[in-house]
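Submission checklist for the structure archive. All mandatory fields must be present; incomplete records are returned to the submitter.

[x] Identifier: Polymerase/histidinol phosphatase N-terminal domain-containing protein
[x] Organism: Thermotomaculum hydrothermale
[x] Residue count: 289
[x] Sequence attached
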Amino acid sequence: MRKLIDLHMHSTASDGTFKPDELVKLAKEKGLSAIALTDHDTAEGIEEFLKEGEKQGIETIAGIEISSLFEGYPEIHVLGYFIDPENREVMDKLAYLQDARKVRNIKLIAKLKELGIELSLEELEKEANGQLIGRPHFAALMVKKGFVKDTNEAFSKYIGNDGLAFVPKEKLTTPEAVQFLFENGIVPVLAHPTKIGMNTNDLIDFIILLKKHGLQGIEVIHSEISEKESKKLLELAYRFNLVPTGGSDFHGENKPFVKMGVPEVPYEFFIKLKERKNDMFSIMETRKL
C-alpha cells in the first residue's frame, strides 16, 4: 500500500476548526503516514499535536506558516518545518508576530465601524472560542449579525486583500522570514508558489534570491495547484536543489472544499525533508565560511 502524507494543515491554534489532536485522529482515519501542523505565526498547538502523534502511531512534524511581504505582491507564505518549541528566540519572534495580528484586529474593527458594521472585540473572542482571532472569525460574525449573506461576501467586499476595510498586518519580508527560520535550524519552504502571481522568470529570480537567505524547499503539491503547475514546480525544485513538499492546506470548516490528504503527496517527500533537516547543520556551517 502506498504511503501518503500531508505537510500543510491548520488547527484551532490559528484559523482551523479542528483541534491539534483532532487533526492527528483524522489523519489516522484517512490512513496518512506523516503530517505536519503549520499554523499561522504560532506554535501553540504543537505540543498537543506531537503527543497525539505518538499515541496514534503517526509521524508528526512541528511546523509553522509565516506571513511575509515582498515588493507589493499579495501576502507570501513561508512554511517552516521542525520547530523546537524550547527555542526562546523563535518563540519570542512568534509572539511579536501574534501581537501584530492583535493590533491589526483592532484597526479592522475600527474600519468596519466606519462602514456601518459594528463588531466588538468581545464578540470576536466569543466567536473565536479560544482560537487566535483572524479574519475568518470576522467573516463568520458578520454573517451571524446579518451584515453580509455569506463569508465570501465578507472577504470580497470588506476584509479581503482588496476589500473596503482591509488592514495589512506588520510582517517580515519574505527573505527575512526565510533567513529567520534557516538560522534557527527550521527548514524554510516557499508555500504554494503559484498563488503569488509571479510569471515563471520572476518566480525563478525570487527562488534564487530566497536561496541566498537559506530557502531549502518549495511546495509543489497543494489543493490550489493544478497538476500542470505541480510538474513545473517539481522541475524547479530539482533544478535548484530544493526539497519538494506538499499538503492540502486543510482548515476544516473554514475551507470546506479542502480535504485532508487531497491531493495525494508521496511519503518520499517526507523522507527528503528529514534528510534536508539532517543536512542543515553542514549547510549552515558552509554558509559561514
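[x] Structure attached
Curator remark: Residues 4-86+173-288 form a domain with the TIM Barrel fold (CATH 3.20.20.140). The radius of gyration is 19 Å.
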